[in-house]
Task: inverse folding
């Protein structure tokens, strides 16, 4: 793999940029692998990368039914943060944010992490009180957070309408939160995994499993049968369908979450702003577009569109907070199918089928989790036991009742 560096850029420029190799190999399926991962989104690719690089597992394939990063990992609004209330979530997402902070260097790929801060707004004294508890809980877990009053907010985000419906009382900010470039994260992991010998096979849909009494023995795909030692499902909104092929029923609902971007403008918003009461979050992309998102559709669906009612609600909420946006045209609107567990927390680890692992339930908030999700799942597969950070997130919590209710913490409440 040729390193990306100023020197190599200059030398390649002199050679007319004809010396660059593709970032990852286009592999064809082999008859068998030690580990087969379904889904080449961020979680599948990161798991493959850490398995190969840290744990020296050979013969890994990542099977993708469409193109790499064409699922939610290439459709999200790029928010990275660890501003969670519950200690389990704080520990897990803080690990992820710390990995993000070093990822460009580690993978030799600029993921454009911009720690511009994520601001959660409070619109009533009660919400201010809740957010104060939230910010204090983060402090107690060693995660940065700062409470802001109205005057602070006026200074921090001068274009915001503090007198909006549900007038703004204050808020809190995690300054290390922000955004990173989602395509770059996927491409960076794909390049690094491929460099460690992982076969990334696009246009290869998993269509079924062959099983014996010891577990899954082979994966049936649109490109033939592949024998597998261990199988990992990283297919996000299609997790319940894939699990059903193995005879399992997961506590997962699939719902569309949508977002939109306006035409680009000069810099007007230099932080991520989220409001649970007005029910919208916004940021400005490096290209100048205002990125707008809100809640998931309130019904289950595999239609990757997002409802018009939610599009209208998101646009109306954005204008409520930032009236100056009202004259901008919307350039694009899109959606992804999210895998949502009853407590809106992830489900990661072994299933009742001993060699079948799932990484699911990332729902509307799994982009920020990609580095830690991959790192801890790879550790769990290699060690044969659940990584300590993943222990709260096993399937068992639905029988023990130890749920971690994060439905109110995913950008906006869902
Ligand atoms: P994906 O990236 O969806 O990858 C799964 C892959 O599996 C897909 O490429 C799919 O084609 C493939 N696949 C499916 N079935 C099969 C099969 N049978 N065989 C082979 N391949 C298959 N999270 C945040 O943290 N911050 C955000 O700001 C944020 N914003 C979001 C905004 C939107 C509009 C959406 C939709 C999601 C958002 N999320 C956000 C959530 C985040 O994008 C996801 O949780 C995360 O990307 C999931 O990654 P993944 O690798 O599990 O899934
Ligand atoms: O989890 O941070 C998040 C998020 C932001 C937008 C959608 N999800």
Result:
């Amino acid at each position: 793999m040729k390193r990306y560096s100023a020197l190599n850029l200059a030398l390649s420029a002199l050679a007319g940029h004809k010396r660059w190799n593709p970032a990852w190999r286009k592999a064809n399926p082999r008859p068998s692998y030690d580990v087969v991962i379904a889904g080449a989104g961020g979680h599948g690719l990161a798991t493959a990368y850490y398995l190969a690089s840290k744990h020296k597992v050979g013969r890994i394939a990542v099977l993708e039914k469409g193109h790499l990063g064409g699922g939610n990992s290439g459709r999200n609004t790029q928010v990275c943060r660890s501003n969670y209330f519950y200690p389990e979530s704080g520990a897990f997402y803080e690990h992820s944010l710390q990995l993000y902070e070093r990822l460009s260097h580690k993978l030799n790929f600029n993921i454009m992490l911009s720690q511009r801060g994520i601001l959660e707004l409070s619109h009533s004294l009660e919400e201010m009180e809740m957010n104060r508890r939230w910010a204090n809980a983060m402090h107690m877990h060693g995660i940065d957070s700062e409470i802001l009053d109205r005057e602070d907010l006026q200074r921090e985000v001068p274009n915001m309408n503090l007198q909006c419906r549900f007038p703004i009382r204050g808020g809190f900010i995690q300054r290390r939160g922000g955004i990173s470039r989602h395509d770059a994260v996927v491409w960076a992991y794909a390049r690094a995994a491929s460099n460690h010998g992982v076969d990334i096979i696009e246009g290869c849909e998993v269509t079924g499993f062959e099983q014996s009494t010891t577990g899954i023995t082979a994966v049936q795909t649109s490109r033939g049968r592949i024998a597998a030692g261990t199988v990992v499902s990283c297919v996000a909104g299609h997790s319940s369908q894939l699990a059903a092929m193995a005879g399992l029923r997961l506590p997962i609902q699939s719902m569309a979450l949508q977002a939109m971007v306006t035409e680009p403008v000069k810099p007007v918003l230099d932080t991520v702003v989220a409001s649970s009461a007005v029910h919208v979050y916004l940021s400005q992309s490096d290209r100048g577009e205002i990125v707008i998102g809100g809640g998931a559709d309130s019904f289950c669906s595999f239609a990757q569109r997002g409802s018009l009612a939610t599009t209208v609600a998101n646009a109306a909420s954005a204008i409520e907070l930032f009236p100056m946006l009202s004259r901008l045209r919307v350039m694009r609107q899109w959606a992804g199918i999210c895998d949502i567990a009853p407590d809106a927390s992830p489900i990661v680890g072994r299933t009742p089928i001993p060699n079948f692992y799932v990484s699911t339930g990332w729902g509307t908030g799994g982009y920020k989790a990609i580095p830690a999700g991959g790192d801890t799942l790879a550790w769990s597969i290699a060690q044969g036991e659940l990584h300590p950070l993943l222990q709260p997130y096993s399937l068992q919590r639905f029988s023990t009742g130890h749920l971690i209710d994060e439905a109110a913490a995913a950008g906006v409440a869902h």
User: Anything to note?
Assistant: The mean pLDDT is 96. The first strand starts at residue 32 and ends at 38. The chain is about 30% helix and 25% strand.
